Here is the input.
Amino acid sequence: MVNILGTILAFTVVFGILVFVHEFGHFFMAKLVGVRVEVFSFGYGKRLFGFKRGDTDYRISLLPLGGYVRLLGEGMFETDRPIAPDDMMAKTRFQRLLIMAMGSIMNIVLAVVVVAFLNGVGTSVPEYLDAPPVVGWIESGSPAEQAGLRIDDEILRIAGREVGTWSDVQMAVGSKPDRLVPVELRRDGQTLSVDIRTGSVSQYQLGYAGFQPKIMTQIQMVLPRSPAEQAGLRPGDIIRAIDGATVYFYQFLEVIQKSPGRELLFDVDRGGETLALPVTPRREGDIGKIGISQVPKSVTKRYGFFAAVGQSVKENVRNTFLVIRFIRDLFTGEASTRQLGGPLEIANFSYAAFLMGWHALLSWIAVISLQLGILNLFPIPVFDGGQIFVLVVESVFRRDLGPKARQVWMSIGFVIFVVLIVFVVLNDFVKKLPNGWGSVLPF
Here is the structure.
């Protein structure tokens, strides 16, 4: 029950912020070009309280899921009615386009501002994500091994797309499950091409190839009175080797579990100083444990004001192209619809981010705000992008669509919108079914 209430609360906060910022964009631009805003509401449903200033009723409504604005003349396309100077239809097509676009623009601006703030206060990220994609480990029996990949191969392109970092590799592979993917790599100074038949993992059907970077292990937490604490291990320590052999992140747990009761010599990097610490895993059942939680080695990135803003713009531009490519891959069949997230998934991730702290929650808000801003610009009739599309068409042909044509356009959009909502909700639900049950549905 606590989890359910927490999930609902987290979703309400995240979704409420995003929708409120979006509607404020419409409100701001409408006021700027002289369109009367009849209602600016925080929340939906019954008006609880508020005040009126000028022609606008500023109100708090019953359901705190974002908000809405009501503009004079909005959705009224008839030309035979009296049109006041502050009516939306009294404005030029360009002014109406600005009003429609400003909601998405504000969502994108919110993403840039939040990421810039996080860049300024400092962001901890796995070190390997920005590293060149040089293979450090290949899982036995994996698609990568079957394709002939080797340690120290440098990945150059995946499916024809250049990859410069491991972050690029993760996105390229993860978006192509169960596909024959061409990979271009550099080995011993020569450029080679191989085809990897990817698999899929998790309920989201993410692409899987089975090769990894050289990820070092960093200790995140040490339990009191544990073997790790007794040996002198501390949070932030980086494990370089065990018994003289380099041990990467994906091997670390296995080495510990296979050594109950046997002393292991850890080579530890602590703030640039190298330490040798003997650690004896405690036997629990048939496996060894030392009482820590571990994460990939991370680095803290902190920028000055202008650098933080510039880096934020760069990150959001990059993520924008990733969203567009993902939508394209959905239509071409290169990406799985299981990777889509609807309201249930957004609620679950919002709650998870809430539990991880304010930094994770703000990062999640930035991600969803950017995606909401981009997707709402798509030319689907009930979206802002659908109305922008009509205004562009009218501008090109220099004539307005008739009220009947607009009504047909909006009706088509409503049907598409309902189908999309039903699809993403069912898609979220199918992910929660036991393995195999979802195969009976066409997702």
Notes: DSSP finds eleven helices and 20 strands in the chain.
